[in-house]
Amino acid sequence: MTAKLPKRPRAFYCGNEDEGKISFLHSINQALRGKAWENVKPLPAYDCFAELGFVPAGLLFQNGWWFHCTECDRSFDVDCWDYDKDVALHPVFERDRRFCSQACRNTWHQNEQKVARLKAEAIAIVTAKYPGSVIQLAYVSLAYLDRPDKQRVDFKVLGVAGAVEWTSEQPDTVSVRRCDVEAWQAYKAGLEVSA
To answer: Is the dihedral of CA 13, 16, 20, 23 positive or negative?
Structure first.
């Protein structure tokens, strides 16, 4: 007997009065779980993008969707007009991201590069300070890009069950779960012995 192949995900529009999105799911029931969508319907024209995981924003825009800029959150539609400022917009699309202008796209990419650099710096500090650490998460909030003291790295070390949290705000301390305090102290003692 041959194993049954899993069904390919299909595109579904999931929306309510506040937002709408396309999700790739195996059934309409998956779309109905969780968030309270008022409108769920299959969109077979977009099924071909399931492997990609998103429908290109430029295609959706051509098909009449309106968006918020990924960078500045300004709304725009096929009219390409900012009604508040009474100026024309020149949207730019990149994969599933949408920008109201090339300037917003450039700013977004500059911020992404800065986030990557800050994450790399934080990870380098943690791995140097805590040998054998396995990084689980490095986080830099876009809201704090100009504040280098707002980085966070979660990592694991041998013997400590939960994640260890380090922040650049308090670089000489870490947070661990209460049940991991003794294990963390043992890890730290081992570092001091090997130093």
So the answer is: negative
Q: Which residue has the tokens 């009474």?
A: 86
Q: How far apart are alpha carbons 129 and 140 in whole angstroms?
A: 19
The answer for residues whose C-beta is within 8 angstroms of residue 7's C-beta and 6 or more apart is 26
Predicted TM-score (pTM) of this structure: 0.75
Phi then psi for residue 165, to 5 deg, are -110, 125
Residues near 101 by beta carbon (within 8 Å), at least 6 away in sequence:
69, 89, 90, 91, 92
Structure tokens at 36: 């309270």
Per-residue pLDDT of the chain (195 residues; tens, 9 = 90+): 566 656 789 999 998 888 888 999 988 888 777 677 888 899 999 999 999 999 999 999 999 999 999 999 998 988 898 888 888 999 999 999 999 999 999 999 999 998 899 899 999 999 999 999 999 988 887 776 677 667 889 999 988 999 999 998 888 999 999 999 999 999 988 887 776
Long-range contacts of 86-89 (CB under 8 A, 24+ apart): none
> Which H helix or E strand runs over 4?
none
* Contact by Cβ (8 Å): 155, 125: no
Strand-pair category, 151-156 with 134-140: antiparallel
